[in-house]
Specification:
mainly alpha
């Protein structure tokens, strides 16, 4: 049987982990890169795929991976540069 430790009413548990990043906050950079790449990259890949001749699913997937990798790289460099200048 599992039991829980009882705390007095109104007590707040101690934080499990805290961070105080020195320099660039890489967690923020990765989160911004992920969200921005999804928000910007998905429509960009869709727009760029319209004029492209992509007859098979393999060709479509390869196209999406190539364009998505480029968008991810450019977004991550931009986010890192922004974070670096803001420190």
């Amino acid at each position: 049987m599992l039991t829980s430790a009882r705390r007095p009413p109104g007590s707040v548990p101690e934080p499990v982990e805290t961070t105080d990043p020195e320099g660039v906050d890489y967690t923020w950079v990765m989160q911004v890169t992920f969200v921005t790449t999804v928000v910007v990259g998905a429509p960009l890949v869709a727009l760029l795929s319209v004029p492209a001749d992509l007859p098979t699913w393999e060709a479509k997937a390869g196209f999406a991976v190539r364009i998505g990798a480029l968008v991810w790289l450019l977004t991550s460099v931009a986010a890192y540069t922004y974070a670096r200048r803001q420190e």
